[in-house]
Write a structure and sequence with these properties.
Number of domains: 3
Order of helices and strands: EEEHEEEHHHHHHHHHHHHHHHHH
Number of helices: 18
Helix content: 40-55%
Bound molecules: s-citryldethia Coenzyme A
Strand order of the largest sheet: 1-2-3
CATH topology of the largest domain: Citrate Synthase, domain 1
CATH class of the largest domain: Mainly Alpha
Distance between the termini: 61 Å
Structural class: mainly alpha
Oligomer: single chain
Number of strands: 6
CATH superfamily of the largest domain: Citrate Synthase, domain 1
Amino acid sequence: MSKSATLNVDGKSFEFEVITGSENEKCIDIQKLRSETGYITLDPGFGNTGSCFSSITYVDGAKGILQYRGYPIEDLAEKSTFVETAYLILYGELPKAEQLRDFSARLKEHAPLNTNLEHHFSGLPNNAPPMAILSAMLNLVSCFHPEVLEVPTTGAEFDRTASLLLSKVRTIAAFAYRMACGKPINHPNPNLTYCGNFLHMMFSDPYQEYEVSPIIDKALNLFLILHADHEQNCSTTTVRVVGSSRANLFSSVSAGVCALWGPLHGGANSAVIAMLEDIKDSGRPLTYYLDKAKDKNDSFRLMGFGHRVYKNFDPRSIILKKQVHSVLEALNINDNLLKIALELEEATLNDDYFVSRNLYPNVDFYSGLLLRAIGIPLNMYTVMFAIGRMPGWIANWKELHDHKLRISRPRQIYTGETARPYVSIAKR
Ligand code: SDX
């Protein structure tokens, strides 16, 4: 394997080092490209550009492999819990019993919101988008906890800040939902698990405590585990870019929430359900939707299909597809959208447009059906993705500071007007 790459340009030859990662992926280190050659590279969407070294998550898009800190997603989905996986992603190792106990205790301790922060919910319109509330409230938390404005990335300070964020994101999400429904908020119950407490805050009523079923608790843990991190995706890159200016953790993840909101990213899970509902209600054949997705003059895309990295099945969609079947069966729910989803997947597998472009179901294609089975309302689906992704965002923000921090500032190729004199308004 080459140790360096040669660039021949303007009659000169330049050598750049080849760096190989622990899973044998290779890159050409072009950190000195501009200073040595005067050239920059161009890569809109950064599909060919590595922005950092990272030891958190590894994805092999060709083989459909996803590992958090070396542990295959299939093992974690089957054997772990979201809290344990969050610890792994944050600290690099699966926790020992005492470490897990301390981590869980911190999450319980930090679940409540400052009552003055609670009042902000009541000023919002009932139809306020939950992702807007989540992003705003995450920033507002730092107004009540000014200590998190510091940038601790190690020790007890980081442990506290990370736990505070991981715990409060769940409380903010539940409070946003309750306010949107015009229902009284449920304060966190320290006797419940991370997921159980969220379900309690979402669905308990003054006269009826929500009873957490083990099936739903496990399904929610699995959903959050599968969303916990995913290399340098759009929202994680956003967290890193914002954090690179030394912005605090809360403002960095608040920006990550905004990036995740987009329908090409985390907003796809609810867009998939809207698409399946439309297919169900419209009575149109699947070919109508497949043709729309292929039509370059139509902005419609088959939501939940395709991925920048996976050119094989997204391993998360395989796990979710199985989980949806078992949860619906266990809860004796007959969701006719699942039948449509299976037919749509089958249709794409037999359509050259999708096969030739490696457009397979991604994490969002089946995740919405699982959230439906759990009873999460549609407008909260992307919020659930954000709760799941929080450990990944925090770990990437921490890793950014653990390495030599450089502010993110890409270059550009200018294509505008060349220099020209000012023209007075009388002469325009
Ligand atoms: C997530 O990056 C991550 O890791 C993200 C994520 C994570 O965990 O963080 O995995 C979570 O965001 C999953 C993706 C959710 N989004 C969707 O399901 C929205 C629908 N999918 C797409 O819009 C698209 O596939 C993307 C955004 C996911 C990927 O876009 P790319 O890599 O920029 O691909 P592209 O637009 O260059 O597409 C290549 C070709 C194009 O056709 P041609 O120009 O070759 O003719 O495939 C076509 C595209 O038009 N295409 C689709 C399509 N996705 C790509 N055509 C129809 N339907 C689609 N869904």
